[in-house]
Amino acid sequence: MNPATLTAAHRSLRFGTKLRVTNRNNGRSVIVRVNDRGPFIRGRVLDLSRAAAQNIGMVSSGTAKVCYEVVASAG
User: Fold this and answer.
1) Higher pLDDT, 2 or 73
2) For 6-23, what is the mean pLDDT?
3) Distance, CA of 16 to CA of 21 (rounded, Å)
4) How many CA within 13 A on the CB side of residue 74?
5) Is 31 in contact with 52 (CB distance < 8 Å)?
């Protein structure tokens, strides 16, 4: 996963799927592309690249409660 791109890791969504991820604390959202598998920590659903996390204001906290929706499925 490249930290400078708007990407995410998800356990089961197809690579290339585009998601709108919204930070529930501040309402900011970003569109990311699934390009990796993970996260492998119990209770987490997505791993965001640093650029994506920065876009929704969660870099300093490291984690945040988010909502996500599929905006374009791959293949």
Assistant:
1) 73
2) 97
3) 15
4) 12
5) no
Q: 29: which strand partners? A: 22
Q: How confident is the model at residue 59 (pLDDT cuts 50, 70, 90)?
A: confident
Backbone phi, psi, residue 21, to 5°? -110, 125
The one-letter code for the residue type at 56 is: I
Amino acid sitting at position 5: T
How many whole angstroms separate alpha carbon 31 and alpha carbon 49?
Answer: 12
Whether omega for the bond prior to residue 3 falls within 30 degrees of 0, making it cis, is: no
Q: Please name which of 28, 34, 60 lies closest in space to residue 48, comparing C-alpha atoms.
A: 34
Give pLDDT, residue 62: 83
